[in-house]
């Protein structure tokens, strides 16, 4: 078999007390702080627009839900959450602080780096390095801080607008904290950066290892502070966002690491019904790549479909005599290629695509095996699909990934959402197979066997990809561009000649201010919204053709030619190699 990837508006706050249930007997030690069955509740507050704040209590010994308004007196210690506000301030003001160097003289540096080591902005947030975020080190003044939060963001909370009060021991009303965090979501670039950093907290940050249960459920900054009701004990928790962008705050007895360890499964169960924020990343699938289509019929009328969006039930009949029935809610289209062939294409969110591959290629259980493959499928997509007009482009094929034409099952979609943006890092060219495994190749058979013996998804992946690291793919719109000046200069030198040769072709519009950035994926792609080309460039002939290829995608982005790979590739070679002679290919 072939190896393949086979003053704010009214808001609603829900405060949940989640029962200790099956883990009531757990005991976790950290120094002198011991957790026992007395820790029978987790406070969880989630902000929703539209209604007055509501507090829900769920008790261990009852299924009844008690609800009362969440009052302004409900407060939490700020703890380490203050660092979130400094990070947001730095991001919105386009500040790039120097790295912090650890000298080994401050106990706080235990959360930063080893003596003589250093730490940067993102890692400092995920590891909770307070020394990095000290306002004095960052030259943040009282006036600039207040002006930012009051003038630009529109917040007037006393605890926020004064640097002197931005301290771990200051009590903050829970409602105000969540309202402040909601403001972050209105600034997509900074919010995207923060989300990408906080995702790492459950992998190798202050909640290291909680990813086994939580997956991508939380994007939070953890905190641990003294419990005022228990001398020598702690209250730990977190504040940030769920994957759907809802601000969240949680707290229970113990350190933050203990809280997330004990409550991670229940938090994940609470969060799993939420749909991750649409990142505007999409996948365009060419269905049935290797099977010529004879006709597409609407069911039950059996009316022949000529083209356009597909809504309802359909039957696609292939030239080999086989047929397939499927349902579409408009995400699939019937199209006619330049050569007159019938085609079916689909456009999906990344998680919807992953769920469709899960439904088509593997089983949905055992759960940990399916989760491992969901992450593997996403990694394969990012490594192998091209990207044009903001979408990853990939074929439904045994050479790539097989994709279900039907809407994804609820179970598969839950698996994809649970691992939202999670990928394998440190391994290039990931592969998988139904039955045959090997070095850097995970088989579904092995994944099922390991899951049945109690292995978590990360252990399953690491068994076949020993050099891997778990990570989260940052939305490309938020990625830092590593400019490739040699590629940009080469395009600029060619541009005048290209303009004279392309101006007569229908649909051509010369792109302005093109940037070329280093690509971290195996395939080059172009971002037509921002006129950015992502590629690797050494200056050889193949790279020049690639640069011309992606330039043409930008130049024809408003015309069907921009999606016609045959046209684009032929014209790229014409520009670079054949000096204008394309050998038999008709340019229309």
User: Which structural class should the secondary elements be placed in?
Assistant: alpha+beta
Mind describing the biggest β-sheet? Answer: 8 strands, mixed
Mean pLDDT: 82
Number of helical runs?
Answer: 17
Low-confidence stretches: 1-38, 580-588
Overall geometric form? globular
What number of domains? 3
Helical coverage, percent range: 25-40%
Total count of strands: 28
Task: Provide the gyration radius in Å.
Answer: 27 Å
- How much strand content do the residues show? 25-35%
- The CA-CA distance between the termini, in Å, is 41 Å
Short description:
The protein is of the alpha+beta class and 588 residues long. The chain has three domains: 7-77 and 175-273, no CATH class; 278-472, no CATH class; 485-576, Arc Repressor Mutant, subunit A, CATH 1.10.10.
Could you list some keywords that capture this structure?
588 residues; 7-stranded mixed sheet; globular; Arc Repressor Mutant, subunit A; 3 domains; alpha+beta; 17 helices
